[in-house]
Amino acid sequence: MFLVSCFLLFSFSSPPQLFVIERQVFDFLGYMWAPILVNFFQILFVIFGFFGAYQYRPRYLVAYTVWSLLWLGWNIFLICFYLNIGILDRDSDLLNLGTGSVSWFEENGYGCRPTYPTNITSEDPYRPVRPERVDGCLLEYHIVEVVQSGIHCALAVFGIFGAICLGQTFLDEDDSCKYGPSG
Questions:
Q1: What is the distance between the alpha carbons of residues 12 and 14, in angstroms, rounded to a whole number?
Q2: pTM
Q3: Which residue of 37, 105, 126, 176 could cross-link 109, Cys pair, CB 3.0 to 4.6 Å?
Q4: What residue intervals traverse the membrane (predicted)?
Q5: Segment 132-156, tens digit of pLDDT
Q6: What element of type H or E holds 146?
Q7: Is residue 138 a contact partner of residue 108, using CB atoms and an 8 Å limit?
Q8: Helix (H, G, I), strand (E, B) or coil at 85
């Protein structure tokens, strides 16, 4: 039982936390404000899950599980957004909350060479200048974002499963008065 608890503690803290911090850094670099806010909540709830597992608190695990379901939905939305599924358009201002920013990987991905317009006159001087085209990328930025969201989906499913199993174990161990009063 101790080994299972240690394994689930590791699964709650290390991989999800590392991947969400990596995503947070690149979202900050790209000024993607909606993902920055959601990533912040993910960091908090992973910490809740860790302490719920460490301190045998089923309520923390329930909070982590509910948030993980929302996190899973968010990442499925991001996959649909970056693949332009339905009415979603990756060129819209939905994720940057109207600032005009885009994914950091659009211009800075491995091998990417952006070409900017020579006549830089913008209607809004506060919006960042986007390149006319980007050539030579090993992977297009939307594919990188989809892969990242897919990894987060897999970690969320694993975390939900682990939290349910561990919470059930905690609740089973908590039944200290199974046989009632004797007398």
A1: 6
A2: 0.82
A3: 105
A4: 30-54, 61-85, 149-171
A5: 888 888 999 899 999 999 999 999 9
A6: helix 141-173
A7: no
A8: coil
